[in-house]
Amino acid sequence: MNELNDRLADLADEMTDTDYTALRGRVETTARRIGQRRVAGTTAAALALVGLLGIGGLQLAPQGQRHPLPPAASQTASEPPTPAPTTPAATTTPSAPASPTGSAPANAALSHVPGRLVYLRVGAEIEVVTVTDGVARTTSFGPRKLGDQVATVAPDGSRVALVRPAKDVSEYPGDLVVVQPGGARKVVRQGVSWGGGTGPAWMPDSRRLLVGVTTLEGDVATGESYGYVDAVTGRYDKLGITAFPSYLSWSANGAYRVHADGDSLVVARPDGTRVRKVSVAGQPECDRTGECPSSVQAVSDDGRYVATGLGSGDPTRVTRARFVLDTVSGKRIDLPSKLRGGVEEIFFRPDDTLVVQTSDHLYLVGLDGTVTATIERPESTNQADLAAYRR
User: Domain residues for 275?
Assistant: First the structure.
């Protein structure tokens, strides 16, 4: 026993200069990544039984090679008054708040993102994860069914909308289905078109969706209209516009909306009154990748800043913002270099500062690029996409 003690003492002397805090941090990080890969592997196996997911988890892959609807153009429209948002009532599974990791130069004590983050996870089951002031709750919306397409969650997390093909001959258009917590489903509109950035878009009230409706005679499309569908009653209020506003996104306070118009972004008021139009054609990605950063994900409350990503020519809607554009100056806001390669989603706080998510962390970032808080992403949001943020 004395010999063992002597040996351990020698080893301790040899390792005097070891940085145990850094070593422990590396071990914990590696363990977390291994755990995430195990979760990803389990989820992938489940998905093989029910169909493939498309980009971002919000977009489900088509069942065959179909041609999407033509690209949409800009529009001007009047929006009816916004009803009060609804509150979901469902059995949920709470989990403990996330604990911070890493350093937070200006706010080291902050252990969560203030406000509510809403995630959507579509695998064998459709789940919504809300993280409110650090407390995560997972709500099941029932199993995913073969044929489910373009799933999207209401900004308050209360409902999920998806499109299902109405006929075997084509997935375009389809039935707009609203799914409630627990899995109850209701077809609220038939003949709903989707493809590219033109899928059903939730309004800030979390009750209505802007949709395009295709009129069919047999299997031949004879017309198209655009309007709001009430997710509860199915009422369809047609708008006098001639095209769907591609990649339509709203500010969290409902004061501004932005959509893509070719290689430009159009900032407008809720009634469609144009505020400004800014080109993204000069951004470096346009030449390097062949796609410009026009897939809008989030808009600041003052309408000035837009979080956006690269557009897509296939039927899926890109839902991952990687850039922040100042629509007044036309210039990009520089993100910290340590984040640039791993950014998955970006949303805005009321003061225009950013909530930036990577695969395993959430960061609060100022417009000057300063990281004010580094927060570990809750484990319950693994394999889920951040779809909305409200303060």
Answer: 22-390
| Cα 303 from chain centre | 19
Q: Are 256 and 274 in contact (CB under 8 A)?
A: no
> CA nearest 28: which of 93, 108, 84, 99?
99
Q: How many CB atoms lie within 10 A of CB 48?
A: 9
Q: Report d(CA 342, CA 379) in Å as an integer.
A: 18
Question: Alpha-carbon distance 30 to 42, whole Å?
Answer: 19
Q: What is the pLDDT of residues 27-54, one digit of tens each?
A: 344 444 444 433 334 333 333 333 333 3
CATH number, domain at 378? Answer: 2.130.10
307 within some domain: yes
Give the contacts of 200 (CB within 8 A, at least 6 positions apart).
150, 152, 161, 163, 176, 192, 194, 209, 210, 211, 229
Q: Are 296 and 247 in contact (CB under 8 A)?
A: yes
Instruction: State pLDDT tens for residues 87-124.
Output: 344 444 554 444 333 333 444 468 999 999 999 999 99
